[in-house]
Amino acid sequence: MITVTDLTKVYHQGRREVRALDGVSLTVPEGSIHGIIGHSGAGKSTLVRCLTLLDRPTSGRVEINGVDLTAARDAALRTARRRIGLVFQQANLFDSRTIADNVGYPLELIGVDKATRAAKVAELLGLVGLADAGQAYPAQLSGGMRQRVGIARALATDPDVLLFDEPTSALDPKTTDEILDLIMQVRGRGGLAVLVITHEMHVVKRICDSVSLLDGGRIVESGALTDVVSRLDGRLSQALLGIPPYAQPVDGGTLVDVLSNGEKAALPVVAHTSAAVGGEISILAGSVEHLAGTTFSHLRLSVPAGVDPQRAIEVLRGLGADARLTSDITSGEDRA
């Protein structure tokens, strides 16, 4: 389990104080995958460095299975860091070492004997689908294969936590999905807690159980994926269900947003509502996503000028949907 409590990082640039992280708190239980998303400059890179104690936080705690890394020093900190497997955007492999030697390098550092090391490396290369690549060199592998090597290396010391920093941003879509499938496969290995730093919504949709939005060094929205997507006015819901932030109503009508999930997402809510209010409601934009085992439907409707939009909203809510005037919803798509 990862537990981060009130994590703050302050940099000083001359007389100017920059709060790169401002009271970040989160928990990632074992066996789960948590995504951290945010624009460039939101604090994601600083968070990675502070979680691994490559950069010491100004205040707050980072705990791995109850062990406070922020209180550890020197040898104790080096030992504690072994509980974290880190995978970077680029695999950062040693070009002069074979793939097997790259994977075994963390074990070599802590003095594991050669035979034990070789057996562990063979096991891990098999796990990531590279059983026959041990004697190859990084330059001989594709980007996706190098990322698989990076994952195998991160697992070498049997960590409690896997931390991925933009693991797929340099990969093509097919290879991205293969790496995401592998992350889902390894997260069940020994009850690992997995934290993924990303700016790609596809990553969150595909593998995350929960997600946090980091903005200006603060977590401004967080929760289980199905919970955050269900908040019609939430920035994460707007980003993950991804419909255009604005649309023109038809002939002076009124815009209404509608969010349904589960079996309700398949109901013909527009037809029912049009019949109930005596006016033809138009669909201007929509998105249907299957996230964390649940189907979500987000529609943007134009209620005709002759119909009371509040009456249409009442009917939609009666059908089990969350419906609101679009003007009442803060569109966070350009900020998430």
UniProtKB/TrEMBL annotation:
UniProt entry tagged with the keyword Protein biosynthesis: no
Coiled-coil stretches: none
Residue intervals of the ABC transporter domain: 2-241
Lineage: superkingdom: Bacteria
GO MF annotation terms: ATP binding; ATP hydrolysis activity
SUPFAM superfamilies xrefs: ACT-like, P-loop containing nucleoside triphosphate hydrolases
Gene3D superfamilies, alphabetized: 3.30.70.260, P-loop containing nucleotide triphosphate hydrolases
Keyword Membrane: yes
PROSITE patterns with a match to the protein in the record: ABC_TRANSPORTER_1 (PS00211), ABC_TRANSPORTER_2 (PS50893)
PANTHER family from the UniProt entry: AMINO ACID IMPORT ATP-BINDING PROTEIN, METHIONINE IMPORT ATP-BINDING PROTEIN METN
Designated name of the protein: ATP-binding cassette domain-containing protein
UniProt keyword list: Amino-acid transport, ATP-binding, Cell membrane, Membrane, Nucleotide-binding, Translocase, Transport
GO annotation (BP), single: amino acid transport
